Amino acid sequence: MIDLHSHILPGIDDGAESLAQSVALARIYIGAGFRQVVATPHHVPGSRLEPSPQAVELHVLTLNQVLGDQGLGLTVLPGMEIALDPIILPLLDAGRLLTLAGSRTLLVETPFQQLPVSWERIIQAIVSRGYRVLMAHPERCAQVADRPELAGALVQAGAGLQVNWASFAGHHGRACARTVRSLLARGLVHCLATDSHDPDDRHAGKVPALAAELAGLAGSANLALMTMENPSRVLRDEPLLAPTSVVFPAEQPRRWWTLFRA
Ligand SMILES: [Fe+2]
């Protein structure tokens, strides 16, 4: 598998705090079946989280050297998770942003509360420059949770959608997990990623079990599309394929006497 969203680089954002943590995350990735990971440190214009492309590339080079020295079979590629803001456009034009692994796709962070009023114009302006947009974790946006049809509008505007495994697992709460199911049911989850931050919490370790669970719901071909085919399409600059809508089994109403069971 390829992970398109990871905070594996040490000391550059709120992800891995040290090289030792980065190596620990790499070991977890390898154990979970990943061979390529795109490092996507936060890029929030006007904040301390505004790394230059050169800084990210240098971190990637150093980490790959360390992983190679330790005989670990994981390749880290450069990228960024870029806050959705109109300033993306001049920054992009000035060459101050990194796409995912040198492709034409930008990983754009969906805000946690609501999309900026100009979101559609921003996405269309990025696309009109010949780039593609992959929206990171739309399911974590309160506005999308309230109105899942907004996710369809993002796709209509030209974006692909990347959902976090942790959200599918319920790590970010019930509303978020419900939104993931809604997006899967609408066939709007183009790919899944770990958004790994540290080796003790959000990481790739649970992905094999979660993938088996999702395969049971979505089918193995659909799972392969979301976890392997579409991520590799991003790296090859090929258009994302739409997954098949996932049909969830109807939830059985609980019988009154089961309420008294532990
Ligand atoms: Fe992230």
Descriptive overview:
There is one protein chain. The chain has one domain: Metal-dependent hydrolases (TIM Barrel, Alpha-Beta Barrel), CATH 3.20.20.140. The protein contains 10 helices and 9 strands. The model has no long low-confidence stretch (mean pLDDT 94). The protein is 40% helix and 14% strand. α9 crosses α10. It has 262 residues and is an alpha/beta fold. The protein has a 6-stranded parallel beta sheet with strand order 3-5-6-7-8-9. The longest helix is centred in the first third of the chain and has 17 residues. The site of fe (ii) ion has 5 residues, from loops.
Q: How would you state the average pLDDT, rounded?
A: 94
What name is given to the CATH topology? TIM Barrel
Number of strands: 9
- Determine the structural class based on helices, strands and strand pairing: alpha/beta
The name of the CATH architecture is: Alpha-Beta Barrel
Strand order within the widest beta sheet:
3-5-6-7-8-9
The total domain count is 1
Which percent range fits the helix content? 40-55%
Short structural description:
The protein has helices at 19-32, 53-69, 88-93, 119-128, 142-146, 149-156, 165-168, 174-185, 207-218, 220-236, and strands at residues 2-6, 36-39, 42-43, 75-78, 81-83, 105-109, 132-136, 159-164, 191-193.
Q: What descriptors fit this protein?
A:
globular; TIM Barrel; binds fe (ii) ion; 262 residues; single chain; alpha/beta; 10 helices
